[in-house]
Every structure is written in structure tokens, then in C-alpha cells.
Amino acid sequence: MLISKILNNNVVISEENQEEVILMGRGLAFGRKVGQEIPDELIEKKYVLSENRRQLLMELPAEVMEMSDKIISFAKEKLQKKLKDSAFLAMADHIHGVLLRLEDGIYLKNFLIWDIKRFFPIEFEVGQFAKQLLSAYVSKELPDDEAALWR
Description:
This protein is α+β, with helices and mostly antiparallel strands. The protein has two domains: 54 residues, CAT RNA-binding domain (Transcription Regulation, Sacy, Chain A), CATH 2.30.24.10; 92 residues, PTS-regulatory domain, PRD. Helix content is 50%, strand content 15%. It has six helices and four strands; from the N terminus they run E-E-E-E-H-H-H-H-H-H. A four-stranded antiparallel beta sheet has the order 1-2-3-4. Strand 2 and strand 3 form a beta hairpin. The protein is elongated, with a radius of gyration of 17 Å. It starts with a strand and ends with a helix. The mean pLDDT is 89. Pfam families: CAT_RBD, PRD. This is Transcription antiterminator LicT. Keywords: Repeat. GO terms for molecular function: RNA binding.
């Protein structure tokens, strides 16, 4: 696959079957330029990118996409389910929104947190994982309410 756009050392945009795809892998783009081939063995993840999602992707910081990938991978492992490729970009968009909200000092209260913990413990665990990633990213401990908002 040829590199169409480099987002960072680990994330590039390419084309497959006339569709744009996001390719992820450790050091995938390191030392490479647009137009160069990506060896298949370096590609760890591939997400199909629909046309209407392309613009959204261009606005998201690379760190947000990496967090999204980590959360989606953790969710797949914990839930033992295959998630749609669209979950990656939906999660990235959600993370970006959370970061913008936190920048403005807006914290949401989730009044269903105890129900979510009780009835959806695995999903809440995924939310806790996401909360920990975001807490580390913003260098501030976020409340558990944030973990319950990921469901």
C-alpha cells in the first residue's frame, strides 16, 4: 500500500480498492515519505475511511487517534466482540469532544453511574481504561463520572 498522507510515525492514510484507509503500526511511517510503499508486515490495524469521515479525521490530533485505537483494542479484548471499523473514528471524535470540554473546564455529572457500574461492569471497566488514558494525557485525574460516559 502506498502512503497518501502521513499523520505521525505510527499512523498514515492510504488507499485500498479505491477507498481511503487509516493504517496503524509501530514506526509505520518512520523514515518514509508520501508515495512510498508500506510493507504489509508493519501494518497492525486498518480502518476503512468513508468520504464523509475524511474531513473529521483531518481535524483530529494524532494523539487522539492513538488513544482511540488503544481504547477500541481494549474494548474488543474485554467485550470479546468484533467492533465495526466506524467505532474507531466515533471514539476518536468522542475523545476530541471530551478534551475540548475539559479545556473549557466543563465536567459532566453522570447520575446513572451506579447503575452502569452494576449492570454493565465490563463496559464500565473499558470506560475506566479510557478515563485513565485521558487523565494521563491532560495530566489531571478525571472523576469516575467520565468513565461512565463512555458506555
